[in-house]
Write a structure and sequence with these properties.
With 277 residues, the chain is an alpha/beta fold. It contains eleven helices and eight strands. The protein has an eight-stranded mixed β-sheet with strand order 1-2-4-3-5-6-7-8, with helices on both faces.
């Protein structure tokens, strides 16, 4: 075996640590590229991977309508959603998002959402009121941000979305993202748990549309989409929320979740409404 000088070993170790650190953060030093399932652009916002699926032709005049999608983690959006996003693009509406890591609706995740929103609206000419679309844990992301920014939201759509931290990922798993102990987060759920902030959306008359399986054990229907809808109904805003309950389906890749024409139509309509003066 050839003995390497100590300085070479140190360089190798340092380079390895840099690569590992970059991978952990979701960002490679010089590669902001995110693999996209449809034509668009991958870029960085505050060092975080971001993307836009852009419509081809059929562009609408004025500020461009768009859908703010979550969770933009590695591999998301995925091929299961391709049909849905194609329908949105064909209607002249863009789809975009930012990878905030496993933020679970935390203040840091919301800050990055705001940075991305400002990139889209102030630098790229997109409309001031996107429709938010959250799949699974993306529901925590979009709802927590929407509750702080009701004037910047035209609607909220979701595919088996999470709204209650207690059901997913659970208090113990969510606490680190909030820079809290589980006990601290538990004590502040009244102000930090997205489901508890729904009255703000009701007051702003933000329309919502969700599709959720009645056998979902990962993100239980009762505590999440059904509870969200119940809070709208209790405030006599039932006309502003639609919940499609799919019998016999759980948290899976059943194509009906991703080819729900009602959800697509709602999302397109809200996004276009959000682009109106």
């Amino acid at each position: 075996m050839i003995n390497k000088p100590a300085w070479i070993s140190r360089v190798i170790v340092w380079a390895g640590l840099l690569t590992w650190s970059s991978w952990q953060s979701g960002v490679m030093a010089d590669e902001p590229i995110k693999k996209l399932i449809l034509p668009g652009e991958a870029f960085l916002v505050e060092g975080r991977p971001s993307f836009i699926f852009t419509p081809r032709g059929n562009l609408l005049p004025g500020p461009r309508p768009w859908v703010f999608y979550a969770p933009t983690l590695e591999g998301y959006p995925d091929d299961h959603e391709k049909w849905m996003h194609e329908q949105i693009l064909n209607a002249g509406v863009a789809v975009a998002g930012i990878d905030v890591g496993e933020g679970y609706g935390s203040p840091q995740g919301r800050r990055l959402f705001t940075a991305f929103y400002e990139e889209m609206t102030k630098k790229r000419g997109y409309a001031a009121r996107p429709c938010l679309l959250g799949r699974s844990r993306g529901g925590l992301w979009v709802t927590s941000w929407a509750c702080e920014n009701t004037d910047k939201v035209s609607g909220i759509a979701g595919i088996y979305p999470v709204f209650d931290l207690r059901t997913y990922p659970g208090i113990a798993n969510a606490a680190p993202a909030y820079d809290m102990t589980p006990e601290q987060l538990e004590s502040k759920l009244a102000v930090l748990n997205p489901i508890e902030q729904v009255p703000k959306l009701v007051a702003a008359r933000i329309p919502a549309f969700f599709i959720h399986g009645d056998e979902d054990t990962v993100v239980p229907l009762k505590e999440n989409s059904a509870e969200f809808a119940a809070r709208y109904r209790s405030a006599k805003a039932e006309d502003a929320v639609t919940l499609v309950v799919v019998k016999g389906q759980g948290h899976n890749f059943w194509e009906g979740f991703f080819q729900c024409q009602g959800l697509v139509n709602f999302t397109i309509t809200c996004a276009k409404d959000g682009a109106k003066p």
